[in-house]
């Protein structure tokens, strides 16, 4: 690249240099004439000599002016050339692409693409995998899907619970209710992924040790079906069709430690915040409630809600806490509402609202790209990815023929699992990390581990 610059400069400077040499020869000739020399004068009569002297004197003055102009012009071109070099190479940090061995090619050939023309992230419009889900309960108010930290997907089909290992591909049947008329209403994994809580239509909450495929305990405290569950350390919260929320301390025999009574109809959405400070609940009474962390206390201890929002005009089942902003809560309304609302729990205000034109059945925050995922029922039956916090649409995913009932995010946050009334489960690989960024992240982790080992020595 530097050779091309010098070639351009030489092409510009060559004519100017030739003119400069010619002007210098004219000046020297005139100086010789003034001293009485007879160079290049073939005729030597007095008339010819006077004419020649006049012409040389005149050219001498004009050539001096021309020489000054040429010098100024060349100086300007030189300064311009230096300025272009500074713009081209100054102030830029050039990173060698992975695997590149020729540093000269990197420095001379690498260009930065403007942000306005950068290629957008590709999201596949079709599912990565489609699984059968026969006899799924096509009920909007139930929560039939959850993904563990060990990449095991739990699915409730009528009165059975199945476990799908998404890394190895194996499927096992974990449990089946004794009564054929009963059905599973909700599922929730512990943070460690070793235990699974199961809410049933016979008003009970069962706790299963997945590794040994054994039921640890069955907890009865509700008077109606248990449609929502959420863990916070050793506290398991359960929401019922009665409108009550119960806190269960699974470490003790008297597990029922607290009752929350903020809803007048079925509690169909229940989510603890990532930091464990707040519990969000949504109900068929169109309310969104935020509760403080449960305190150690006796049976029947009642707690008042910090916030109770009534902006939605339909049932609120879809709830999601932002993992990188713990004070941000997203909620979605049913068929009569169809809105996604973003709440600031600290101030108690609604930050933004969006009409999705469709029933909102589930919400998920995707941290890999700072995006929000919503699943829908009537009338679109689709999955939509939104940029957060602008809530501008990134892409729509169509793969179900009936309403999407639930959604869950994989442990690495790269894949969404959705279950639908069409008796299928779709796995959408929509948030895979850029290989370059992934390589840089792994290299950073490796360097940190190396420095840690050195410090241990």
TrEMBL record:
SMART domains: WD40. The lineage of its organism: Eukaryota, Metazoa, Chordata, Craniata, Vertebrata. It comes from Takifugu rubripes. GO terms for molecular function: anaphase-promoting complex binding; ubiquitin ligase activator activity. SUPFAM superfamilies: WD40 repeat-like. Residues 131-428 form the CDC20/Fizzy WD40 domain. PANTHER family: CELL DIVISION CYCLE 20 CDC20 FIZZY -RELATED, CELL DIVISION CYCLE PROTEIN 20 HOMOLOG. InterPro entries: Cdc20/Fizzy, WD40/YVTN_repeat-like_dom_sf, WD40_CDC20-Fz, WD40_repeat_dom_sf, WD40_rpt. Keywords: Membrane, Repeat, Transmembrane, Transmembrane helix, WD repeat. One of its GO terms (cellular component) is anaphase-promoting complex. This is Cell division cycle 20 homolog. WD repeats lie at residues 177-218, 260-291, 334-353, 397-429. GO terms for biological process: anaphase-promoting complex-dependent catabolic process; positive regulation of anaphase-promoting complex-dependent catabolic process. Belongs to the WD repeat CDC20/Fizzy family. The chain crosses the membrane at residues 70-91. The gene is LOC101065248.
